Input
Amino acid sequence: MRPGKGGRVTPIEIALAEARAAAARGEVPVGAVVSDATGRILARAGNQVEALHDPSAHAEMLALRAAAAARGGKWLADCTLTVTLEPCPMCAQAAAFFRVGRVVFGAYDPKGGGVEHGARIFAAASCHHRPEVVGGLREGECASLLREFFAARR
Output
C-alpha cells in the first residue's frame, strides 16, 4: 500500500488492498473499510461470496457487520464506508440501515450499482436514512482492478 497525503495510509488504499486480496482468492475484487470520525479503521473486508458460499458476503456487508460488532452497537452515524465499487442495492440499503454517515466509493457500476445507478436506494422515498455520498475516488484504479479480473476469466 502506498501512503496517501501526509504519509498516512488512507481508507481507499486499505480498500484497494482488500480488493486485490479478494481477487487473489478468486473473489470479485471489491474491498471495503469502515472508519470513524477520527479516521480510525473499525473494520475492513474483501468479498467472500465464493469462500463462504454466501451471496450476501459482499465486502461492504462484512465490513459494516464487523464495525458494528467492534462498536458494540448497530449505528454507525459518525462513520464512513469506503468501498472500491459503487455499492449494489443490497449494500446501499445496509448502509442506510446501519445509518452510516458517509459512503465513499471508487468505480461507478452502471449495471449493478444501487447508489448513483439502478435502484438509487438513497433517493427512494422509502429510504429512512440518506448518507452523504462521494463517488469516483480513485475511479480509474478501482475500475481497472475489476476489468483485469473479468478479462482474465473470459
Q: What stands out?
A: The chain is about 35% helix and 20% strand. The mean pLDDT is 95. The longest strand covers residues 41-46. Strands lie at 31-35, 41-46, 80-85, 102-107, 132-135.
